[in-house]
Design goal:
This protein is mostly helical. It contains twelve helices and no strands. It is a multi-pass membrane protein.
Length: 292
Amino acid sequence: MLNFKNTPHLQALIFLFIAMISMQSSGSLAKILFGQFPVLTVSVMRLLLGSLILAVFFKIWRVDFKSVNWKSVATYGIALAGMNALFYLSIARLPLGIAVSFEFIGPLSVALFHARQKFDFVWVGLAILGMFLLFPFDQAAQSLDPIGIAYALGAGACWAMYIISGQKPTGISGNHTVCLGMFIGMLCLIPIAIYAGMPFAVFEPSNFVYFIALAVLASALPFSLEMMALRSLTPLVFGTLTSLEPAIAALSGFVFLGEKLLWTQWLALSVIIAASIGCTVTTNRAKNKLEN
């Protein structure tokens, strides 16, 4: 029987895959909520409820706040806020899979920066090809909202900062870092959301339950799992494996929102998955050679 405690790398990969599925599935729920509430309101509620859920679950009151590296936590929280808000603003204007494709430029840049072996560039190159194929060049390319694309690229830059800041020591556990980071991110966004018009209807029980579900699927669960995964994965592996995000997002949009995919985009899913598997295999082999 496989002992996960003795295989932290495999455990980290499983955590990351669950986080990606949870995150991208929640994107479909968020797009449904956009029909009733402002985008920034949905973003703020996601971070607020996510941070409160984690605060209770991980007993935030037990943290020694004197030992917290607030600079690192604040950087992480700002990255979360930017990634969250800009991504939601982008999917309000673009199909889910296309938005994530543009956003993925951020983690892909991190992966490319840390590439060292020749196969690293092969897998990153495949991920780029997959992202290229995911773009609908032969259909409605002109109809893509340029503001939505700009939002997605901004979310990608915040995603890159999220990966880097998530690996810096904060003086507390990863779960407590996520909790405090989400709360800081919420504090950054809530004045803007209130100014833009945050309806009180979000707290009505019939609506509130959907925001709780969104907070769990989009924040509390994936951010906690990603934080644990970042402790055992290199930036290269994390950045390349997240190339699965556009594929999962495209499938989620197809299943839950009826967003159709072209044949080239289905091909893109296969290419992106191949890059993720290849990156995992070659990195593990290189790691084993160093240890033996």
